[in-house]
Specification:
Helix content is 56%, strand content 0%. It is mostly helical. The N and C termini lie far apart (49 Å).
Length: 59
């Protein structure tokens, strides 16, 4: 494996991570009700019934 293929692989992994982060940030900016409608996993904790904050702690 050449250095260029390694750099290309790292660059594509970073791009994918940035895309995931931006998508999650966009979804988290939606109202909680909309997040629950689309099934966003962090929007609602089904075990306790509490709304989840952005940091993952119960609000």
């Amino acid at each position: 494996m050449s250095i260029f293929s390694s750099i290309g692989r790292i660059a594509s992994e970073l791009n994918a991570a940035r895309t995931r982060f931006n998508t999650a940030r966009s979804i988290r900016s939606l109202p909680i009700e909309l997040q629950k409608d689309i099934g966003w996993p962090e929007a609602f904790d089904s075990n306790t019934g509490y709304r989840r904050g952005h940091s993952g702690e119960a609000v």
